[in-house]
DNA sequence: TTACGAGTTCAAGTAACTTGAGGTTCAAGA
DNA sequence: TCTTGAACCTCAAGTTACTTGAACTCGTAA
């Protein structure tokens, strides 16, 4: 039997089999050939395509963005510059998220540190930090509440 | 009429009204009093509680984690140290995500730079980067594919 | 031949809300 | 007092990107 079974494709691309069927359903992957017993058989090209898709997903591109990228690769009339621009837009998004996450890291680290320094380990209702989290107007300039919300 | 209407609570806590109803439905917020026309009326305590919830969510805690935190605040028999530990666990998660995102940023930036330097802007099917993304075994040590997957 | 793992389909579940439909209530202006 | 329109109500379905479950068939090794 030539070609890969779904489990083999899954292994090669580190994807779950149901995810592969899902990609087929939403049209990200073409419907593959079936062997006599109705089982899917994939070719080398499917491995490449799915690898591409998974890698893009790992890069944080949304399914719709990946779809655009896949179509772009397929369509000889469209330029590589489009892919570059899509990636560039995505880069801006990632950088914004990175900034947020850094602020968040700082805040939570501050939370833990303050808790270590100021709380006696008593009931949660007396915890200075939990109390602060519930405060409507963030008092002063505590790093803890700066980036929240 | 004493108390806040849902729209007022929403404004004070920068939350959508449907989200407030949703939180009530899943038991994160207690069922509020209703006035004669069946409209919800909230007290100051609800503002505090929802502020707490929203802030925790902004900190990236999951609904389940927030639920644990809320219960912790309410239960006088449980210690503040539990909150600290929960936050600490969360901090580790955030740091892991931060590392991933940094690698991702580097990779996409590399993608864009390589595209600027090497692609002639021709058809996507000839783009060196798109081509690389579809390559099964990442060739060499290009930063582009290192962190993906 | 008989297990049993791997495959099949279809439906429903997941998180954390958002959106829509269709109907009431409230508050302010004429 | 009436009327209008914003804000409220409930219930259901949509969103994203899959995952999980049920109930069944197929392929292959002992």
Attribute tags:
two-stranded antiparallel ribbon, MerR_fam (chains A, B), Multidrug-efflux Transporter Regulator, Chain: A, Domain 2, DNA binding (chains A, B), disordered C terminus, MerR-type_HTH_dom (chains A, B), DNA-bd_dom_put_sf (chains A, B), DNA-binding, mainly alpha, DNA-binding (chains A, B)
Instruction: List how many beta strands of chain A DSSP finds.
Output: 2
Computed CA radius of gyration of chain A, to the nearest angstrom: 24 Å
Domain unit count of chain A = 2
The overall average pLDDT of chain A, rounded, is 80
Mass-distribution shape of chain A: elongated
Order of helices and strands of chain A: HHEEHHHHH
CATH architecture identity of the largest domain in chain A = Orthogonal Bundle
Helical residues, percent of chain A: 55-70%
Beta fraction of chain A: under 5%
The CATH class of the largest domain in chain A, by name, is: Mainly Alpha
Might you state the CATH topology name of the largest domain in chain A?
Multidrug-efflux Transporter Regulator, Chain: A, Domain 2
Which structural class fits the helix and strand makeup of chain A? mainly alpha
By DSSP (H or I, 4+ residues per run), the number of helices of chain A equals 7
Oligomer: homodimer
Briefly say what this structure is:
Chain A is mostly helical and 149 residues long. Chain A has helices at 6-13, 17-25, 44-58, 63-74, 80-118, 128-133, 143-146; strands at 33-34, 40-41. Chains A, B: Pfam families: MerR_1 (PF13411).
């Amino acid at each position: 039997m030539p070609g890969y079974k779904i489990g083999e494709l899954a292994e090669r691309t580190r994807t779950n089999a149901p995810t592969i069927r899902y990609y087929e359903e939403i049209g990200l992957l073409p419907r593959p050939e079936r062997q006599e017993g109705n089982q899917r058989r994939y070719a080398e090209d499917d491995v490449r395509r799915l690898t591409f898709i998974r890698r893009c997903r790992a890069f944080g591109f949304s399914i719709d963005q990946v779809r655009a990228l896949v179509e772009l690769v397929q369509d000889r009339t469209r330029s590589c510059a489009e892919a570059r621009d899509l990636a560039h837009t995505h880069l801006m998004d990632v950088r914004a998220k990175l900034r947020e996450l850094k602020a968040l890291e700082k805040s939570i680290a501050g939370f833990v540190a303050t808790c270590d320094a100021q709380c006696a380990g008593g009931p949660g209702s007396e915890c200075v930090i939990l109390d602060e989290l519930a405060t409507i107007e963030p008092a002063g300039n505590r790093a803890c509440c700066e980036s929240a919300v």
